[in-house]
Amino acid sequence: MPNAAKGNILVVDDEAQITRVLRTSLSAQRYDVRIANDGEMALEIMKDWTPQLVITDLAMPNLDGIALCKRIRQSSQIPIIVLSVRGQDRTKVEALDAGADDYVTKPFSMNELLARVRAQLRRLPTAESVQQQIRSGDFEIDLEVRSVKVEGREVHLTPKEFDLLLYLAKHRGKVVTHRKVLAEIWGPNSTEQPEYLRVFVGQLRKKIEVDPSSPKYLMTEPWVGYRFEPGSDQGED
Questions:
Q1: Is 97 helix (H, G, I), strand (E, B) or coil?
Q2: End-to-end CA distance of the chain
């Protein structure tokens, strides 16, 4: 009996050479792969088939990668990896702002991409997370359904925003360095990409803080990193 697929991956790119390489490499790793040539085709595929991960280019006809990220985020929190020849910080920030979880610049190492894929899929909910909750101060974090409440108000986070908040909550009251957070959340190849943190910390503050410009939960330690203070009650279940 053949081994079961390790996960469904949707690849969205209008370059035939790229899609062939990705299909071959990902299928060899026992992923179930489907291909879309643009964002509109990707959304059509997702109506009848549920991927656990989307890998998308940015520059595509009809519906580009940025627009696709935004459309996916309207109804789904599945991880999204962007592949693009555009390596400028501004483009990376735009993609992350649109809902992407990771960004890989073309040309890329297939081993690096596979490592990023594994990192994203590892953070999907599993049976091991059942009944796990963190209650700390103003925060309730449910690891089973990956939900967050702040003072009883439900906050909708993307997968990477959730991972970042969870990591900080597990180290509440402690200063965690930029490099440590980047390595833990995005992998060891991302420690020199601080724009990831700037974007996601900014997004988190907009969602969990009453006044993002004057945060009380997610504090900046200048030149070092961040410190999470969950609020009045410091206890944890």
A1: helix
A2: 43
The domain 8-122 having CATH identifier 3.30.300.160: the answer here is no
Q: Is the pLDDT of residue 78 over 90?
A: no
What stretches of 134-219 show up as alpha helix (H) in DSSP? 159-170, 178-186, 194-208
Q: Which CATH number fits domain 127-228: 3.30.420.40, 3.20.20.370, 1.10.1280.10, 1.10.10.10?
A: 1.10.10.10
Phi, psi for 66 (deg, rounded to 5): -60, -50
Report the C-alpha gap between 198 and 204 in whole angstroms.
10
Q: For 20-42, what is the mean pLDDT?
A: 95
Global pTM? 0.67
In the chain, the largest separation of any two C-alpha atoms, in whole Å, equals 58
More confident residue, 19 or 185: 19
pLDDT of 226 over the 90 cut: yes
Report angle CA 205, 94, 12 to the nearest 5 degrees. 120
